[in-house]
Amino acid sequence: MKRAWKISVSAHTELLCLQRSSRNPRILRPHLLGHARSPAHGFSREICDMAAPSSAGVREIMEMFIDKFARVENRAVLGEGVLARVLELRDELVQLNGRDEIVRVLDEKADPLLLSVDALAFLELLKQLDSWPHRALEVLFWKRKLQERGIPMTSEEYVKGIRVAGRMKDVDLAFELFMEATSKRLKTTSTYNALMGAYMYNGLAGKCQKLFLELKGDADCSPSIVTYNILISVFGRLMLIDHMEATFREVELLNLAPNVGTYNNLIAGYLTAWMWDNMERTFQTMKASPVKPSTSTYLLMLRGYAHSGNLEKMEETYELVKDHVNENDVALIRAMICAYCRSSTMDRVRKIEMLLGLIPENGYRPWLNVLLIKVYAQEDWLDKMESSINEAFEQRTSVNAAGVMRAIVGSYFRCNALDKLASFVKRAECAGWRICRSLFHCKMVMYGSQQRLVEMESVLDEMESFNFNRTKKTFVIMYYAYLSSGKKNKAEQIKGLMCKHGYGVPHDAVSS
């Protein structure tokens, strides 16, 4: 473990982290480090990345790490009239293009609306522009420029600016705003938290931890529960579970009250590391505490249940947040489909079909299509299987998993769809799909069962073109095909060839 990841939460905790990380191999277990599963399983840790938030949840995650400024009270203090003017200004700003137009409108309509000493209206405008971060930054730049006219910025405005810069992945600007607030003696725990959150959001764990140590050494500020929430999130994303747990113990030692963000980050960390029992234990602890689960909590648990294959709890949790998931979280819907695909529940296809109806037409994912092909093949839904296969060909998706190919062949065989199998094999060859010996053996068995012996023999040439040698199964298939067709001489010739190659007599062979 690199020393850069140690955290001096306290002398006791730092020593504990170091000891546990050096002796506990679970932190670096290979299966927790995102090794991809084979295509036969239909998904990989990269595909089912649980640590990365969906685009719909980005703002909510960032909100988790920013101290609240009593937003409800803020709106009440503003009054309906001022709030209406802020919303009107927002609607106008989002229609503009270019900095000059934005500055012109702000100069004309924002004074004195946004220039009150308490900055509540200005903060509300920035909040209303959360969905348009570029506009929010331009508004912030406009306000910074006014300092030249003696109109100062507040600490809360710097916090909001740092947060927006972090969301825009402009870490340099976030740091610049932090230093500017520091130089004006406006540095607070909230400004520290905002910059730590920006570092966390942009994957700069080292800088995040360094800033935490600076905060602990600042005589004028001290870490809050939001600070520790950020650290828990950082360690959880890195799967440094012992460090994450040590940070939470420090929260308890300091008598800081955990909030929804604290528990959600712990759950997310265990989820990322696939530590399902710890995830469930944390969830139950949260439910027993004064802090009650939020929608985000249930979404995390739903994802965890889906990836762990706990269908019963997955379905129970889905019922609680169904409306939100159906409307906002296609990634979670795909995760649930994955769970059903990997299960053996009787009505899995019906449930899969229901969830597929919630995915938009432009939501094609190659890995999900391959999963569906395999499921339809296993269930002998031939039309659905071929529809998914055709979609894969159209999307130029290449299937390289032998298990998927065998499932397809098995379905064609059980449905006695010989001509469809022959057509599929030709298309698969052209599309670069994995060609297995079982494809050719299956064709031979089906040709033999229909006494289409000439076509059965032509399959041998196809096998040679792919450098597949004739095996014991090849000869057994031919032997019984000739025998069932009354061509005993041909059958005896095959028996002789089998003996020549040391395979023994056909009666000892296994069926293909």
Automatic annotation (TrEMBL):
Keywords from the UniProt entry: Repeat
Keyword Nucleotide-binding: no
Superkingdom: Eukaryota
Gene3D superfamilies: Tetratricopeptide repeat domain (1.25.40.10)
GO molecular function: mRNA binding
PROSITE patterns: PPR
Protein name: Pentatricopeptide repeat-containing protein At2g30780-like
PPR repeat coordinates: 259-293
Organism, scientific name: Rhodamnia argentea
Protein family according to the UniProt entry: Belongs to the PPR family. P subfamily.
InterPro entries, sorted: PPR5-like, PPR_rpt, TPR-like_helical_dom_sf
